[in-house]
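Duplicate of earlier report; Switch-associated protein 70 input re-posted below.
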Amino acid sequence: VLSHNLCTVLNVPHDPVALEEHFRDDDEGPVSNQGYMPYLNKFILEKVQGNFDKVEFNRMCWTLCAKKNLSKSPLLISDEDAFKVWVIFNFLSEDKYPLIIVPEEIEYFLKKLTEAMGAGWQQEQFDHYKVALNTSREGLSAWELIDLIGSGHFSKGMDKQSVSMAINEVFNELILDVLKQGYMLKKGHKRKNWTERWFVLKPNIISYYVSEDLKDKKGDIILDGNCCVEALPDKDGKKCLFLIKCLDKSFEISASDKKKKQEWIQAIQSTVSLLRAGSPPPHKEARQKRKALRQRLLAEQEELERQMKELQAANENKQKELETVRKQLEAAAARAAEEEKKRLQTQVELQDRFSLELEREKMVRQKMEEQVAQKSSELEQYLQRVRELEEMYKQLQEALEDEKQARQDEETVRKLQARLLEEESAKRAELEKWHLEQQQTIQMTEAEKQELENQRMIKEQALQVAMQQLEQLELERKQALEQYEEVKKKLETAANNTKSWKDKVAHHEGLIRLIEPGSKNPHLITNWGPAAFTEAELEQRQKSWKGKKTASE
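Output:
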């Protein structure tokens, strides 16, 4: 019976064969929830397409559970109102089993009811109730919520009819997605007459009925993103007119007053804007935001609790560490006291030993200072000799540089003189060539004499220019010879300086040696190093050594 009724309400074809096949081995009594749930999911819920009346479905579920769970105590609301509160609970409850409604959603629902009844919201009264609720549990069940609404705790001073109308209004908004409803006049499309209708605005449709009991439906206005609404001027004796334009049809409607007209225009415009943006209805979007906010706050609270636990564990660890350190300090203080006694005992012995060692170190230090003074004097003499030798080495290098520069200047002058001689030879050859051409020109015929005479004059001029250039070259050659003589004198002076330095260096044998251009003869190796002397210098030194040896004998 349950399966057949569910299939009927959900518009799903009933398959009794599948039902019998699923429970064919169950012969021990009533079917358990564990055995029925797989069948419900597989053969009924998976076939649901969404084209069923959700209110009728909720009413069937209410019929199954209300008799068992609804309170037996008298309530200020009817069974129909209790059913609507139960449906609203299913909409606002958390997505976990067992279902409960948290205090934030209870506050939202009660505010909606109070607003619908036209009463003032008592925030302080709810805060006291919320504190008492949080100390005992996380939220209320559906039946506890019905008891809370039916007890009249938050609707004191209101009659039963006002509470029922408020519950119905909130039910229409949250469950039936009714954004606005009310009586207005509608102009007919065929007869063009004006008829009063009960209009109900939902997120994608406006339905109009004969009366507010919603039994006789007369038509729908399908809304989409292309629809628009605009105000119309008064005409035909009708006031507060506005027009709803759709793709295939337009509807002229007259509100009861300007306030109602403006409210309906704004409500329809907001609905069309939500359709264009693809957003859910305002109450569903608000519920999603409240749920996201609760989840974020819960995550932050869990993170804070985790951090507190970590801090508490870290604090306990620190306490243990401090206790360990305290014990270590006490042990260290005991060891330090014992070591202090040993130190006082050995201090006298160490003082005597240090006195003896201090006297010994004074004597050693005095000897070392004498040795350092002697070494310093020797070092100063050695450094003085090294400085003299470095000075001689620098002067010798300067003399060698002067000699090298003089040789380079001599080579430059020689190259210049050779270039001048080559230019002079070339000019002489050119002059001889011109002279030979002149002789040949004289021997030409008389007819060409005048022309040749002119050419001769030109060549004589060129010859004069060449003679001037020759004289200039001769002058440059003489200047080059003079420069050559000067460079030669400088070279002789540098050679004399080098020879005098060689004599000075001979008195400092073993400390320094001359650096001279290498000889083409085979190198000689002496105790001063390879090629330290030429053969002539070596013979001269051998003679000097032999003479000194003979004199000493």
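The beta strands are 180-187, 194-202, 205-209, 217-222, 228-232, 241-245, 250-254, 525-526, 529-530.

Merging into the original ticket.
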